[in-house]
Amino acid sequence: MSDPIYIFAGGGTGGHLYPGLAVAEQLRATQPAAKIVFACSDRSIDRHILDPTPHAVVVQPVRPMPRSLRGWGGFARAYLRSARQARQMVGDLKPAGVLGLGGFAAGPIVSRAAAVGVPTALLNPDAVPGKANRLLGRRVDVIFTQFEPTAEAFSGAARRKVRRVGCPVRSGFATARRAEAVEHFELRADRRTLLVNGGSLGAASINEAIGQLSAELAELADRWQVLHVTGRSKPPPAGRDASGLHLRVLEYCRRMDLACAAADLVLSRAGAVTVAELTATATPAVLIPYPYHADQHQRLNADALCRAGAAVLCEDARDARLNAQRLRDVLLPVLREPERLGRMQQAAGARRITDAAEQVARWLADGGRRADYGRASEGS
């Protein structure tokens, strides 16, 4: 019997890929001979994340759905090329299972695999599924989700396939230790750490707002230090040379497990993977959701942590000056009040979930023969 091959399809934002890498890690732990092929988008962030891994990578020409009629011709041509590529990949590799990681880059492979009877699953870690995931949900065997209300966003038939398992997180987040993180990032062991992170692509509005808070942060330099991940090609925060503040600025962080291990508080967007990593590491947060999504799914991602008391919400005003003022009202009180931070840490610890990657990997390894993974949606 040949070694099993699994295809993981998705990408385009970076965030889609990290849960797939967590599942791949679990599959390889139980099936060392398994081979995993990532079918990603042609965006540079995907290769930046995947190239250092041991997995094979196939780039697809597929594009996201256009927002205007003008883009549909190019979209259709790219999708047809990707569909032909998917037909060849599935036919040649004969995968034991396919995992859609969400978004437009999952479409061609997932559709082809489902059409020819390959066990096919979809990861949907965001609170609200996007258009591509709502369409793919009709075709796959099972949909793995992070949040309980997500099932309601799928149609009746797809809703019955939903299993809530959490969002797969790489094992390093459970094993990383603060002492290693402090050394890795050249931080001070006698200071608490504020981790500022805008996600794989960064968040210019957060960077700019933090720059405007440099004087206030400097006043806390005897208790706090800052580890700031600005994002690739994003400008560093202005005013970052605030007197006395120990500040480490990175364009990109490959070791987010260590960054979370170092962090006593995180200021970040509320992407699904970020929320999952905060949950897995029991790290309290100030969440400033991306404001430009029509469905505001990052705000909904943040909701469970905020209701539990593990995070507080700060709305992005889309203006650096206003954001700085809002962070003065939301972030600075947490930094200044150790008792409040302690309560948030306790609340974060109560929500810890760690076995999502294992559950998804077991479903794939079992060839989709069992349906009792995770928790079925209400009324299914």
Describe the fold and architecture.
By secondary structure, this protein is α/β, with parallel strands linked by helices. It has 2 domains: 5-169 and 354-376, Glycogen Phosphorylase B (Rossmann fold, 3-Layer(aba) Sandwich); 172-349, Rossmann fold. The protein has 16 helices and 14 strands. It has helices spanning 17-30, 44-50, 72-93, 107-115, 131-136, 156-159, 172-175, 178-185, 204-212, 214-219, 256-262, 272-281, 297-308, 320-336, 338-349, 356-365, and strands at 5-9, 35-40, 56-59, 97-100, 120-124, 142-145, 162-164, 192-197, 224-229, 247-250, 265-268, 285-287, 311-313, 375-376. The chain has an 8-stranded mixed sheet, with helices on both faces. Helix 2 links the parallel strand 2 (35-40) and strand 3 (56-59). Helix 3 packs across helix 4 (107-115) and helix 9 crosses helix 14. The chain is globular. The model has no long low-confidence stretch (mean pLDDT 90).
Task: Label this structure with key terms.
380 residues, eight-stranded mixed sheet, 16 helices, six-stranded parallel sheet, globular, Rossmann fold, alpha/beta
List the helices and strands and how they pair.
Elements: E1 5-9, H1 17-30, E2 35-40, H2 44-50, E3 56-59, H3 72-93, E4 97-100, H4 107-115, E5 120-124, H5 131-136, E6 142-145, H6 156-159, E7 162-164, H7 172-175, H8 178-185, E8 192-197, H9 204-212, H10 214-219, E9 224-229, E10 247-250, H11 256-262, E11 265-268, H12 272-281, E12 285-287, H13 297-308, E13 311-313, H14 320-336, H15 338-349, H16 356-365, E14 375-376
Helix pairs in contact: 1-16, 3-4, 8-11, 9-14
